[in-house]
Amino acid sequence: MSVGLEHYLILSAILFSIGLYGALVKRSAIVILMSIEIMLVAVSIAMVAFSRYIVPLLLTGQVFVIFIMVVAAAEAAVGLAIIIAIYRSRETIDATKIDLMKW
Amino acid sequence: MIGLDIAFWILAVVAIVAALAVVLLRDIFRAAISMILCFLTVAGIYVTLSADFLAAVQVLIYVGAISVLIILAIMLTREVQRGSPSNKLRIPAFIVAVLFLGAVSFALLNTPWQVSAELPVEPTTAALATRLFGENGYILPVEIAAVLLLAAILGAIVLVREK
Domain spanning A5-90 has what CATH number? Predict the structure, then answer.
């Protein structure tokens, strides 16, 4: 059986689920951020696969992936800056202990 | 085409194993290294989808920039000694992830995708530039992305500045 659109979409769904599990379960804020990056990459795979198989001449999905990368870079920079700021003031980045705004 | 199929299967298995290692490994530094491996295999998957420009950009931005940033943050926060523990929600989160995977797989396997028979554009760099900057293109989102990056840089500088 030749590799087609469904294979790429299933791969994307598996990677997204792994990232979702990591983002929900992990206590370290940096690992949560890494899981979110994996989720973004998984969505990008789905976008490129749609672009390749459904509109191969328009490249719309690839344009979207470029914007996903822009947002991922901005998110990583600001997220890590927040993590370092929290670490400076509280000496921990354990997400279960950063509960100042928890009701 | 058989070569592309073999490449896809190898890359897919390595990507899934590397992603699992990110969430399962105890050592946070090794998790970051396997995240880099996952990003590299995703660049390979872009190559099998004939997205050459995106593969290069993936290596540059994810493998080059974001990974270095994350490793730098690990070094700055002394996270390596604490490891990568899980919270109490391990089983509910696993159930949620599996349910999500099942629902999405069911939906996408039962959707009649209208797969086009045309061959993809190759190389994609010039075509992508035309799509981004040409007539009826995405020039406004490009400008907004520039503003977003500027805001992110300023925000990051302000957040980590010593008071």
Answer: 1.10.287.3510
